[in-house]
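I am still getting used to backbone structure tokens and would like to learn alongside you. Label the sequence line and the structure token line clearly, so we can match residues to local backbone shapes. Would you write everything just below, so we can both look at the same thing?
***
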Amino acid sequence: MKKILLFTVLFACVLACKKDDTPSDTTDDGQMGITDPQEVAFILNENLTVADGFTVDPTTVATTDDVIANSAAVGRMPVKTGIENVNTITFTPSAETGGNPVSAVGMRFGPTGDIIFREVTAEEAEAGIASFIFSIDPSVCEDIAQICHDIKCYEFAQTSSGAITQADLQDIAAVCAACDEPSCLDLLDEEVCENNGLQGASGNPRFNLTWTGGTDLDLYVTDPNGDTISYSNRTSPSGGALDVDCLGNCPGGNSENIFWENGGPSGTYSFYINYFSGSGPTPFTVTVFEDTNVISTHTGSVTDSNPDSATFQYVK
């Protein structure tokens, strides 16, 4: 029988920094640091980078209610500086938009200011899901308090006409402290914090599948030696293993995780998603890591009538 384990995904971005009785310009241990929510939001946005991103001033474009964008994350997620983070947004698929499909997805910290977008592919627009890689410069933590800040991130989609959707919100925690720091423990489970919001072990490579809802999806990875790992064959002679297997509606989010702890063999890895059971189309994201480095993201949608996704490849 498959084992249900936890997974929490990725997020959207107004800030309400965690505060106690200390002054707003000091941390819990007396160190100086900004805690004002608007100032922290401004600093985060100034130091936010999205791969292949472009900015849009929302005051100069129309807003649409015909298309909906939502965060694919469940629960509060840690966002750390100096590493690559992944944000996944689901949205109205192109076939349901009346000829005005989504052309980009984006995010912003705080309730005002420019939104940083990245264009979606035709396949992503059709499936109604897209992921993008973002990072925050480590210098942020030199200015804001050395604690975990309780944050809301705003997420958007933009249509081919240039209009943007209403904002969707996701709670995150900007981590400028150790995961065992009290302000972090009040916001995040320590294991979630240490693993950057992902359940399961890290590895090189690591394949992490996420989705939402009650559908049971399965991740299949074939290593360069031709051995396939899945829920029915959880290890391979090359050292790969599946350690997270969710049946759908898992507490904290749906995930499956396949990894090579001591380094997998060089060569080409093939992977795909299978729709095991459920109802209705189910968008998914697979993120490929080499240790903590995000190598690529792959999105799509599967159904009971078309249960297998496209086959993706990663070359180590």
